[in-house]
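Subject: Sanity check before I submit

Could someone independently write out the structure tokens for this chain? I want to compare against mine line by line before I put it in a report. The sequence has 349 residues.
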Amino acid sequence: MRGVVFTGDRQLELMSFPDPTPGFGEVVLEMKASGMCGSDLKHYRRPKGVRQATGIAPAAGPTIAGHEPCGVVAAVGPGVDPRHAKIGQRVMVHHYQGCTACGHCRTGWQQLCQKTRVTVFGNNGHGGHANFMCVPANTLVPLPEELSFTAGAAISCGTGTAYGALRRMGTSGNHTLAIFGQGPVGLSATQLAAAMGARVIALDISPERLARARAFGAAETINPAEVDAVEAIRALTHGEGADLTLDTSSAPSARLQAIQALKVWGTCCFVGEGGEVTIDVSPDMLRRQATVIASWTFSTVGQAECARFIIDHGIKVDALFTESWRLDQAEQAYQLFDQQTSGKGVFLL
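---
Independent answer below. Compare away.
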């Protein structure tokens, strides 16, 4: 089979790999859709020979990219409970594997495992940008028949991440929520938060992305390159600031603005990977009783819950995707995605 491998300095190769065979407790998926996530760009852009500093143990060799996998079970290894996986089943993948036995793993949060080297598929374990993918059966999350494979790919990271952050903040119709960054995760958050009843203020420096945010349910849009974002949010909230803010961009300036734009007793959540932020604690946090939290993706339970929420609320997740690609178009696909002005891309197999 063939798989996309990031080789550094915005280069990639479509390499050949042996077709996988499932071992004990594993399944092989025939890939149907593999989404492109904004966090992929950190690995795509990294200098040759330098591993991206993610705190994740490095891979032993060339690793297939893609951590938004969705497909059909094609083969089942020994020791797999048929209640968890069977041939022909439509599934998403929770793209982490820990020790499987600790409290975090047993409650569906394998990425938080403290007992062993965590495998992150598409990072230090083979991901979904390939014809087939071999994963432990315990990472599978059923894909409801009402959802397309592309929707399942989005839920497997970007959309699921947005849902997890919104739930962590307790988003509801009582809230005004400012979302910094309208890439795939930010646009997903805009869709989902609007469905939860929140008044969404969407921020991005791309006019194209702001237009999409408006179409996806944002009540207001702000371009921080044109106006003072904090003052603009205050002007839209009677001078008080937003109840909730969410940074999906990982830009230091956006993170700081997300904190400063909060109202008294407000909550800010960071989901953008990497980077830093410098905060003046007293005026920006302490004297406004601000809560600043982080949200790293979601659990297997949260992934399934996100899928059901999307179905029940008729959210058009497929509208996130503006481009679809074949594997042999990977170079062109990531060159476009790297510009960060388009929507979400997906490889269809």
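---
OP: Matches mine. For the report I'm noting this point. The chain has two domains: 2-157+298-348, 162-294.
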